[in-house]
Amino acid sequence: MTNHLQITIWKLLDGWNNLQKLGSEAFPPDFTVLTERAGWTHPPCTFESDVLCSPAVVGMTQTLEIAFLSTVFGMLLSLPLAAMAASNLSPYWLSQSVRQLLAAMRVLPSLIWALIFVIVVGIGPLAGVLAMTMYTVGYLGKLQYEALEGVSKEPLEVARAMGLPRWQVARFFAIPEASNALISQALFMFEYNVRHGSVIGLVGAGGIGWYMNHYLSPFQLYDKVLALIIVMFVVVVIIDQISLSIRQRFMDGETHPQRARWRDIIPFFKIREVRN
Amino acid sequence: MTTQPPVRLNMANVTIGFNQEEPLIECVDLEIRAGEIVGLTGRSGIGKTTLLRTAAGLVRPLSGSVECCCTADTRAEKGAIGLIPQRLGLVQHQTVGYNVLMGALAEANLLQTALSLPSKKMREETRSVIEEVGLADKTMESVNRLSGGQQRRVAIARAMLQEPDLLLADECLGELDAETARGIIELFQHMAKDHNMAILIVDHNPVRAKTFCDRVYQLRGRRLIPFEEEQSSPALPVIGEASA
Q1: What is this structure's pTM?
Q2: How many domains does chain A contain in total?
């Protein structure tokens, strides 16, 4: 098999030589990507500060914006689809059809979705947002319908005995019951989208990846690329930590029950409380 | 000639279970009228909950007819049947106000439910039933933080707001101290008398059920039979005795 795949020790040794060459060109990282103004940002940067218009700051901000918007849009689209896909909330034919739809959306990785949307809407963050939204719907939808299927059946039976339609059973009983898990999943998805938001830039869909690609091809400025990777790593670690602490707050709710902040996070779902 | 209250649940020659060859309960004939409280007892696993779920339209009977609230074959009109399951069916991590308000959903119109905007009347009624069950100071509290007795009151308040014609309550009094149980029983009596509800309540303790139900039935050997004290297993403490 190694023969068929042309994997040889000589190739590995060649790779080692290339790695050494790459290392020598990448070190030390060139952090001017954080301080020098880039006149070629897309869309053009209008701030006066050079730092705010540097490739690292503009690229990372775009990546975060793409991740945030695609998580919000993805969540709004995936939640009704997840309710339709949950076998305890929908008839068999509907849940199976929606599951296949969600699976189809997951089949293509975000990079391929980005390629498709760059062709459809052109280079830029819009293609990134659309691509990440599509992938988010497929991925988050699966997590959500599994969470909805895990809710206690008793509140749902109360609603069914009352004669409520399926959408009300999902909206007022199943979704609030699973709210902690759903919020936790949305935060996880945001982390995931920040990490993957950097990749989609390589095909022109905006974000820090687009700036990396600019340095890689054709200039091969590996020291600047390494600096961008370090910036991205630091931001991802910070976001991971913030997200983890927020998620723990919701997951701890199982042992130390506390009121879900679901309605505080998504005002669309706000219900007027009965106050004294 | 006095007119009898309307029939809220009529089960005629019903066979209940999940398998035609091995039904859980056979030949169930049960009629409950408005304002009546009917008790149902029997040992664990004999089919009490399944009988209740069949009456609620959640389980299809294997044979026979179930007429709920004057409508044939289990499909009662919206909001006509109220259910308090054994584990109460409260929406976890939500407030007492939210959970009680769910009882008004059957009455809410499409716009109110779509926009999650209960009417002023609904909110006032919610507040009033929460006060009635003695939880006015807990309205904004998460139900997870309440005691077992308080959670039962929330489930009862939800049913009171819904005002169903037929209320089905599963083991609502289990594991409660005598005083709390008495408070809950008073709420059921209030609902039956003042709201003219028909109530079918499952209680492990047949002697206690006798003290507040108009009729008590027992599930024994796949049959639903009227409860008679000499048939019962060793009597469990009556509320009055336990508290004395």
Answers
A1: 0.78
A2: 1
